Amino acid sequence: MSTLYLLHKPYRMLSQFTDKQARATLADIITVPGVYAAGRLDYDSEGLLLLSDDGELIHRISHPRHKQPKTYWAQVEGDISEAPLQALRQGVALKDGPTQPAKVRRIDPPTTAPRQPAIDPKRHPSTSWLELTISEGRNRQVRRMTAHVGFPTLRLIRTAIGPWRLDGLAPGEWRKETLHAPRPANAPPGRGAGQRKEQRARPTTKRRKS
């Protein structure tokens, strides 16, 4: 069995445990020893980050070969129409090559925790919310894709990685899941592959010294 930690990374926090510039890091909200992030989430993005002390599990989740789909909520500038959505569905040509087709739809503004600072309505009087699912992991890919079709991303929240979802976690909260490997055919009944036991936790936030 392996242990996986599902964390809601807050806005303006690094996806690592140390920083020479004294910016917020994962060490401020999760104190489990020996865990590492499976992949990363940009400093100015929010949402689901997976961590584990199992190197093989981290590799299976984060390696591009396994193509774990990632789903995001993106608040973009402007009133987006169907044409740019269709362009995203077909794939767009970025500087590092064309993207694979994305699953994308316009959604009503989701219920999310307030972000500090919030999007300034005077500077951005018109915005739209999208749900996008991609199977690649390029640097700042969603932001570059929406900017390419003329609708820059203002806020980005990752809600799912493969079968794991952000559901119910507030920024800074995490929960623990125990993943069970397949059992031999002659083993007693129990949990099988893909099944997991959840344990929710709210870590104590450490304050940084200025």
Describe this structure in words.
With 210 residues, this protein is mainly beta. Helices cover 12% and strands 31% of the residues. The protein has helices at 55-62, 82-90, 141-148; strands at residues 2-9, 36-37, 46-52, 70-77, 93-94, 97-98, 103-107, 127-134, 153-161, 164-165, 174-179, 196-201. The longest helix is centred in the middle third of the chain and has 9 residues, at 82-90. It starts with a strand and ends in a 9-residue tail after the last strand.
Quick tags:
mainly beta, ten-stranded mixed beta sheet, 3 helices, disordered C terminus
Summarize it.
By secondary structure, this protein is mainly beta. The chain has helices at 55-62, 82-90, 141-148; strands at 2-9, 36-37, 46-52, 70-77, 93-94, 97-98, 103-107, 127-134, 153-161, 164-165, 174-179, 196-201.
List the helices and strands and how they pair.
Elements lengths: L1 E8 L26 E2 L8 E7 L2 H8 L7 E8 L4 H9 L2 E2 L2 E2 L4 E5 L19 E8 L6 H8 L4 E9 L2 E2 L8 E6 L16 E6 L9
Parallel strand pairs: 3-9
Antiparallel strand pairs: 1-3, 1-11, 2-3, 4-8, 4-9, 5-6, 7-8, 9-10, 11-12
The parts where pLDDT drops under 50 for at least 5 residues are 182-195, 202-210
Straight-line distance between termini:
41 Å
Order of helices and strands: EEEHEHEEEEHEEEE
Radius of gyration: 18 Å
Q: Helix count, per DSSP?
A: 3
Give the helix/strand class.
Answer: mainly beta
Instruction: Tell me what portion of residues adopts beta-strand conformation.
Output: 25-35%
Number of strands: 12
Major beta sheet, specifics? 10 strands, mixed
Shape estimate: globular
